[in-house]
Every structure is written in C-alpha cells, then in structure tokens.
C-alpha cells in the first residue's frame, strides 16, 4: 500500500489542481519577470496569469503600426495601469492608434488606477471618456505647460473631473502646472471634489507653492480629505502667505486628515562669507507659532503622518510636539518630518521632552534643526523605541557620539538611516558610530566627506574624548559589554552616497563598507562645479566589484554643472567628466539595471550623453535595462546594440524644463523608433 500511494502521489502534477486553487496560487506571484516566465509555460498558465494580473506598465512605441499588437490580450482583473513610460517618452498620445477607439478600455475593463504622461489634455479626454470609474489618477509632465487656443486655467484637469465622478485620489507630484490650475479645477466641480480623499500636489519644479487663500479654498470644497501633500508659501515677506489662521481653517475644514505634508519649496541659502550675517532664528522667525501647532494637533485627532518643512525657523517647538505625543484621542503619530524647527528636543537630564515623548514614532526626519545636540539624539533613542527609519539633515551640532547613542538605543529596530549635511560628521565617523547596528541596517545614506572635521583649535574632533561618552544611555559598563559589534553589513540592501564634484569613491572600502554581501542597489549623486579639469585618475566605480549581489545602480550627475559645448580657454567640457565618472563600469559583471543622469549645462538646458559616456556604458555587457535621463545622438545610441543582454533602453527627459526642440542630430520620434526596432529585432540569450 505505501508503494502504491507513493506512485499515485508522484503522478499528481501541478496542472491537476482545480482551476480555482491554481488561480489563487497565481495571484500570489508578484515579481514581473516571474509572471512573464510563468505565462510562457502553457496556454493555460498564460490565461491564468492574465486573469490574475492586477498591475501593468505598458512600454513600447504606440506610434508604430500596428499597435496594440493583434491579437491583443485581455486582462479582466487588472486594476492599475501605467502609461507614463511609453516611447518616445514624453510625447503627446492624442493621435496614436493606442487611443483611437475603445481598444484599451476593452482590454482593461476594470482599471481604477491610471498613471499617464499628459503632455496636453487630449489624451486624458480620450481615456477618461471610457474609464469613468477611475478612483486614482497620477499625471506626469516635465515639459512646459501648453499654451494656445483652447488652453485655459485648469484645462489640464477639467477632463478628469468631468468624466470621473468617482475619483478619490489625484497625484500631481511629477506634473508641471500652475497652482491656479489646480485650484480652479477643484473649485469648478464641488460635487466631485467632495469625494476626494487624497491630494498630492507637490507639482514638478514648484518654486513658490500655494497661497493661503488657495489652500483654504481647496480645503473648503474637499471636506473628506484624508491625505494632503502641498507646497506652500510660508515666507512672511510675500502677500497671502500661509500662517496660523490658514492652519486653523485647514484643520476645521478637513477634520479627517491622517496625512498632512506642507513644504516650503524655497531653498535655504546661507551666506558663508567671512563676517557675513545670516538670517538667524531670532531675527527672522516663521509665521507659524508653536501654540497654533498645538491647536492643529488637537483639531486633527486622526493625524498619524505629519510633515512641516519650512525655510524660516519655528522657535521653541518642544511643547507642541509633547502635546502631539501625549494626546489621548486617536491613534499615535507614526511619522514626522520637521524642517527648521528649534527646540525639538533639549535632552537635558533624564526626563523626556519634545519629540522624544512621541513613543509611537516609526519614522522621523529632522532637518535644519540648529540646536539639536548629541544629548537630544540620546533622549530620542530612549523615548522613540519603535523608530525604524531616521533622517538627520543639516544639523551642525551633532557629532559621532550622538550617532553612537542613537544607534545604541535603537539597535533592535533601526533599519533605515540617512545622515546628510551635518558638518561635524564625516563618512568614516558615521560608519564607525554604526558598529552596533551594522548587521541590522537595510538602507543607509551618507555624504562622502572622507576627512574628519576639525575643532576650532585645528585638532581633529574625537567624540570619544568627550566627558559624557555613553553615560546618557543609562547603561552600566557591564551591560554594554554584552552587545557585540557587527563587522558585516549582512542586511544592507540599498546604499546611497552623495559626493562633491571631483571627489573619489576609492576611500569607501577603507572606512568599513567593504563587507556588504547582500547589497543589490546603490545610488550615487554628484553635485558641484565641473568647469575645471578633472583629475587624471578615475572616479573608482571598479571598487564596486566587492559587492557580488549588486544589480542596480543609479548614477546621478544631474547637479554636476559644466560646459556642454565649446568650453572657454583653460576649461574642460563635460565629456571628460563623464569619462572620469563612468570609467570602470564595464568591469561590473553583475550589473543589470542602470539609471544615468548626464551632467548639465544650465545655460543651454543641455543634458546629453557624450561619446565617451556611450562608449563606456557599451562595455557593460551584463546590462539588461538602461534608462538615460536626458538626450542623446542617434549614432551614440547605436553603440548599445552591441550589448548582448540589453533588452530595455529609454531616454527620459524627466527634469524641468524638458527640452521642447532637440538638436538636429539628437533623438527624435523617428530616430527613437528606428533604434527600438533595431533593439527588439536582436536575439537575446535568455
């Protein structure tokens, strides 16, 4: 009998499972490549995959004929559709076969979430006419706002409110338009606006933001808002700026808010010249007062995610944050982002104050908090024991000792850490301070400042010389010996680096980041002036060979400024800098995906791939996906056809303003089509 049962068991195949059970199994498959592979096994599996797929991002060129391919598959359960990455990227879709007739609505009948690059209102008019049940819409546009006949204030959004009466969430974080467009469109359809629960209105390249009257008018017609993200004018020097009264009206009109992010997009500029006087906190405070913040928190009992990023300081904000942490009604606040707050946490003695009272916090970002000290971080670590994500930006009093205290207190929960623009913390000091949590961190961002900061007397600052080393943690020496220091960053999956222009990557291995066995993604951002001659040595991408699992890289040179064309005498153009930064990328045998932002010349709005860059990227034979966030010449793009594993290439001008008229030899619609046809006609090994 046992042998017969074993024989029967071995004869049962996965195909023999009931249809309902097999369909349930397919619904748990999330990776896109795994789904694509499963659909190639058999016709039955292909049909099951289509019936259970819930999200899809369409790629390819809709300007080619025939498109969509015939017969085009039907996805009856698909609810989320992304059309923002169609090629040629950023072009208007109004005259393409993709939008002629009800092709897409017939194949995707159940779509409720749509992402679309809306160059002009025509594409949105065509799609929303068929998909009137849309609930979530994200619009993308990095080109200039269209002008001309038929384009009026709010015309980009009118089709959305006219045809989709059940719309609940609108995301305009990557959509360039005017604040007047948003306000006018929402106020014109009060019945539809009443059903809105989420508004993300950061607006691509927003320079000023919403005025007080605009913010109040939006809140008046959207009483059921649960999420609001918006840039605002907080500067008291401007007319109609956001102040205490604006926040009071906002809380009164939208009492159901659970997420509130208000950001001042004005950059903070400090004069670093000797003897210059900056706008100090006591001389130029914000129009938002701590008393009003305390009232705001009490008026929004459901608030769990709050962000207020200002360019003028709020003085003595500690009592307001204590009121937020000690409120009895509603859930605990879980996420806070505070920009230019003073008195966030004093950390004196052993009692908790300020933000340290918010014991339910899981994510905390402190930005430009001038009086935040090492003792403050120790108090935050003792009070906010659930923190898994912590960001520290522009806090000049914090030293390596403060990071040690934070890491010690959060050694069981901290997973994501960002430390940036803190003048007393160098990269070696930060890595040294994280010895206790090396084996637990999953994501880390650091500024690659390789030299340790110096004290006023010229000597190097050593935090271990301070009198109050780790006593602020209230742990005796006998207990501290129990916590072993991790030598390997075994859980680190993502690493983010910032470097000034001309700095090298080689010291990264010497400071203690050489053992990251599971690192699969790295982001490198370079910022600064590239108008001088680069160093004859290379940047150092070859050291990334130390990370065997590294498959994704983002190399962002978009803030590296130089000369795109003929440089003045004694200066170098950007092509030499691209050679400096990309040298060694061909030596990375496991790299599969690359996002590359070329350096720019702001005077001509030029971000274009150079000949040395194209040649060096061509040498990376393992690449499968390549996204260039800029323009390129067609004959340079032809280099990539020699890469055997490359399957997906796209030019994305996703920066404002995206160039309207490219050079005569740069990629245009027809040249993109020719390149994609040549790329797709090749045989790929897998």
Automatic annotation (TrEMBL):
Supply the Pfam families for this chain.
F-box-like
Task: Provide the protein name.
Answer: F-box/LRR-repeat MAX2 A-like protein
Highest taxon above the source species: Eukaryota
Source taxonomy: Eukaryota, Viridiplantae, Streptophyta, Embryophyta, Tracheophyta
Q: Which residues form the F-box domain?
A: 11-58
Q: What does UniProt give as GO cellular component? A: nucleus; SCF ubiquitin ligase complex
Q: Which organism is it from?
A: Carex littledalei
- One GO biological process term: SCF-dependent proteasomal ubiquitin-dependent protein catabolic process
PANTHER family the record matches: F-BOX PROTEIN MAX2 (PTHR13318:SF148), PARTNER OF PAIRED, ISOFORM B-RELATED (PTHR13318)
SMART domains registered for this protein in UniProt? FBOX (SM00256), LRR_CC (SM00367)
């Amino acid at each position: 009998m046992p042998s017969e049962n074993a024989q029967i068991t071995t004869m049962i195949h996965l195909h023999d499972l009931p249809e309902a059970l097999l369909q349930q199994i397919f619904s748990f498959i999330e990776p896109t490549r795994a789904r694509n592979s499963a659909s190639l096994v058999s016709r039955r599996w292909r049909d099951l995959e289509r019936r259970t797929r819930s999200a899809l991002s369409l790629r390819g060129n809709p300007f080619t004929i025939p498109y969509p391919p015939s017969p085009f598959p039907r996805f009856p359960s698909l609810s989320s559709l992304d059309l923002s990455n169609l090629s040629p990227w950023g072009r208007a879709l109004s005259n393409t076969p993709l939008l002629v007739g009800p092709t897409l609505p017939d194949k995707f009948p159940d779509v409720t979430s749509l992402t679309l690059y809306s160059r002009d209102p025509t594409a949105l008019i065509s799609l929303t006419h068929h998909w009137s049940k849309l609930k979530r819409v994200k619009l993308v546009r990095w080109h200039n706002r269209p002008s001309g006949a038929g384009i009026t204030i709010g015309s980009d959004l009118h089709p959305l409110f006219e045809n989709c009466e059940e719309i609940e969430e609108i995301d305009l974080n990557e959509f360039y338009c005017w604040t007047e467009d948003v306000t006018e469109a929402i106020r014109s359809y009060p019945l539809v606006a009443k059903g809105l629960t989420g508004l993300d209105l950061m607006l691509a390249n927003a320079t000023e933001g919403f005025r007080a009257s605009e913010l109040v008018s939006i809140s008046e017609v959207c009483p059921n808002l649960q999420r609001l993200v918006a840039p605002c004018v907080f500067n008291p020097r401007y007319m109609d700026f956001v102040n205490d009264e604006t926040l009071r009206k906002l809380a009164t009109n939208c009492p159901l808010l659970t997420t509130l992010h208000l950001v001042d997009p004005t950059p903070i500029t400090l004069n670093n010249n000797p003897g210059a006087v900056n706008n100090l906190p006591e001389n130029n405070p914000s129009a938002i007062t701590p008393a009003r913040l305390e009232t705001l928190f009490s008026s929004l009992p459901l608030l769990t995610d709050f962000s207020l990023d200002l360019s003028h300081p709020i003085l003595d904000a500690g009592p307001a944050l204590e009121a937020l942490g000690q409120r009895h009604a509603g859930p605990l606040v879980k996420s806070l982002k505070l920009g230019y707050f003073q008195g966030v946490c004093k950390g004196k003695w052993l009692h908790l104050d300020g933000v340290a009272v918010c014991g339910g916090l899981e994510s905390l970002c402190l930005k430009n908090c001038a009086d935040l000290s090492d003792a403050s971080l120790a108090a935050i670590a003792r009070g906010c024991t659930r923190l898994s994500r912590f960001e520290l930006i522009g806090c000049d009093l914090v030293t390596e000792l403060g990071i040690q205290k934070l890491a010690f207190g959060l050694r069981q929960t901290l997973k994501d850490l960002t430390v940036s623009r803190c003048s007393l913390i160098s990269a070696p000091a930060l890595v040294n301070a994280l010895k206790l949590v090396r084996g637990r961190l999953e994501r880390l961002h650091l500024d690659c400042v390789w030299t340790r900061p110096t004290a006023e007397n010229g000597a190097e600052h050593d935090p271990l010389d301070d009198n109050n080393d780790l006593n602020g943690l209230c742990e005796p020496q006998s207990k501290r010996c129990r916590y072993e220091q991790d030598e390997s960053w075994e859980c680190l999956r993502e690493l983010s680096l910032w470097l000034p222009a001309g700095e090298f990557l080689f010291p990264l291995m010497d400071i203690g980041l050489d053992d990251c066995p599971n690192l699969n993604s790295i982001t490198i951002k370079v910022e600064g002036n590239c108008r001088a001659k680069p160093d004859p040595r290379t940047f150092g991408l070859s050291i990334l060979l130390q990370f065997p699992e590294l498959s994704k890289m983002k190399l962002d040179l978009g803030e590296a400024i130089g000369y795109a064309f003929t440089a003045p005498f004694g200066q170098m153009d950007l092509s030499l800098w691209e050679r400096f930064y990309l040298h060694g990328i061909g030596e990375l045998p496991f790299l599969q995906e690359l996002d590359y932002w070329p350096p720019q010349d702001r005077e001509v709005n030029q971000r274009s791939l150079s000949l040395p860059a194209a040649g060096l990227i061509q040498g990376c034979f393992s690449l499968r996906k390549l996204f260039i966030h800029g323009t390129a010449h067609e004959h340079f793009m032809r280099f990539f056809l020699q890469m055997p594993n490359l399957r997906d290439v796209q030019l994305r001008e996703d920066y404002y303003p995206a160039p309207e008229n490219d050079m005569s030899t740069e990629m245009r619609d027809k040249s993109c089509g020719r390149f994609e046809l040549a790329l797709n006609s090749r045989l790929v090994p897998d």
